[in-house]
Amino acid sequence: MSELYERIPNNVNLSDTPKLQRALEHWLPDYLTWWQEMGPDGFQEDQIYLRTAVSVEASGWAHFDYVKMPDYRWGIFLTPPERKTITFGDHAGKDVWNEVPGEFRKDLRRLIVTQADTEPASVEQQRHLGKTAPSLYDLRNLFQVNVEEGRHLWAMVYLLHSFFGRDGRDEADELLARRSGHQDSPRILEAFNEPIDNWLDFFCFTMFTDRDGKYQLAALAESAFDPLARSTQFMLTEEAHHLFVGETGISRIIKRTLELMHEDSNEDIREAGGVPLDLLQKYINRWYSACLDLFGSEDSSNAAIYFSQSLKGRFRESKDDNIQDHMALEGYYAMNCPTPNGPPDNKEIPLRRAMNCCLQDSYTKDCARALRKWNALIKRAGVNFELTLPSRYFNRGIGFFANMSFTPSGELLTQEEDSAQRKAFLPSKEDRAYVDSLMVRATQPGEIANWIAPPTQGINNQPIDFEYVKSKG
Ligand SMILES: [Fe+2]
Ligand SMILES: [Fe+2]
User: Fold this and answer.
1) Ranges of each domain in the chain
2) Ligand 1 centre distance from Cα of residue 235 (Å)
3) What is the mean pLDDT of the chain?
């Protein structure tokens, strides 16, 4: 039975472990201080129509009501135990672990802390966006994403406190001490240190970066360490909404651009105050390539270790019938690597060392699916333009292609060519200034900024012009 009305709502019988409960109750005020300092700026007193998880059952995890963000009931929810045996890696076939085996402690802690760190980081990155929300519907969605990232931090901190003793408690404190973009104590992953200051970036972030999160969480949901698997499994249910926000956000931008083009086919879309499709393409180039880096190196000994230790699997490792070999001791991942002066280097990465590539491929398929949907919108409007995902070589900061330059279609460039063409492929300073100039805040129910179409549906069957945020002022 879940303890829903406790100070820390949970379904892990927290009251049966008073020491752990006290430790988390001690962490709670620090968390709230962090939220006040680094959470959404200027909206802490407003009433937001939010979804709160009150249990993990299908009927109970999506409860909608007005709530002030600092009063959101951040809780600890794990999906019910499902699997008895480990499904991949060296420990396949043995019982899942409910404690952390000593020899994997360090690696598991590192995996959990790296995941955990992205959750508060994204809240920090997005903290100023409320001031330019294109509608109350979008404002509410932003805050929904933010409070759930806060809950994801709780999910990971619960694991650190419960299973990693003193070290875990220290790590939990560190998670509240690091700051996105801070010079001395930045967030762990580079992509989480840049501010997200406009809504095109926000929708790209929720489309591409949160989607990387989905694949990382899904890989951890296969873990032999069952509390981690069950925590991340439930996080994935919430994550689906974040991805929805990103994917439909970009759809609505495209829809509006097509409307503006239809109204006056001769007019420059910038004159009409819309987002040109070629500008959107540059944002896709930037975000998709940065997110490929989040998967890590193509040939990775860490990835091999995590897989062999049964800590981190592939996407749907235990559910996908196409994955037959759960040991991955044989076979290679073949990859074509262009070289500057000569024939391509055809690499064969031993499968376990190529787990980052496997996860990345699942991610790429998912992104490509979204692009097909967007392109269908464009085609239906009779516009001759196609959005594409850039090549895996393009604009990379990590892995085989980090020190080379490519076009989005994958042709090798010299350094000089690269700096000359960069402007054509990635958002320039002027592009960013233009996007910033579009950002105006809509404050009335049903009001919508000019650069984006309204959603097709409201939240929880409410009308689109519902008062999703009630401002105090
Ligand atoms: Fe998250
Ligand atoms: Fe998310």
Assistant:
1) 14-470
2) 7
3) 94
